[in-house]
Amino acid sequence: MDQNCDTKQDFYNKKQKQIFSKYPIDFDKHFKNLFLRLGLDENCFGKTEHCKHPNSCFVDILKYSLKSFLMGYSVTAAIDIIVILVKQFKKLKSNPFFLLITLISKKNIRFALFPALYTLIMRGLTCLLRRIFKQDNNKISFISGFIGGLLSLWVREKQNRSIWALFLITRALDSLYRYQLIRKRIPKFDLDYTFVYCLMIGFTVSIYFTEPSCNSRGLHKAWENFSCEDISDYGIRFIYNSKMNKELAIKGIPPDEPNKYINWNRKF
């Protein structure tokens, strides 16, 4: 087996232990008790010779998936509690169950399912591919991470899915860029991230003016506040969007929906 893969797997397991060791809850102790109650041994179903995790593949996948869910849920629950205490305390006093209803809301469950599902698919597929190909390499890690990230997006709300996808693609490209730098396959220049950031901003601004319905409502509102448009700017945009939609209709393409976010009767 490739020594480089061993080092990477050991490093990944070490980072996972460091992350969970700083968490106030002793996950390992609770999971060990849970497995004992379910009659499961920590080494049940075995593991491949290429896996570096201490327990079986089944236990490792289940343990880290549940950990990811609990950590994701605790983060969003903590934020909700702070927001309620700061901004909605009167509503909490009038309805004591308001906090409980908020904590078990569909939004919080979906938020926690995102990292849990990613961990479940990524770790499960990694162990499965190791069993199939009898080896461990970078291609297996890439395929598992890509499929895990893609499928886990389906638990996010449809209107936020594009933002999460953009974030994941950006992080993937950033990792690819850093990897190529480490391998010295491409040269590094001082304004690399500045250049990429300018391209990203230029792209989102162009979408704001030409295809506003492709942006999220929050991003559209942000650019609307920064743009300092007046009534003549709105007139130009209205003419452009009307012309573009006529061309799309002729080609049989669904038109853009600028009215989704733009208030053409806005007072300036």
From TrEMBL:
Q: Which InterPro entries match?
A: Tmem135 (IPR026749)
- Segments spanning the bilayer are 70-89, 109-128, 191-209
The answer to whether keyword Membrane applies is yes
Keyword annotations for this protein, in alphabetical order, are: Membrane, Transmembrane, Transmembrane helix
Protein name (record): Transmembrane protein
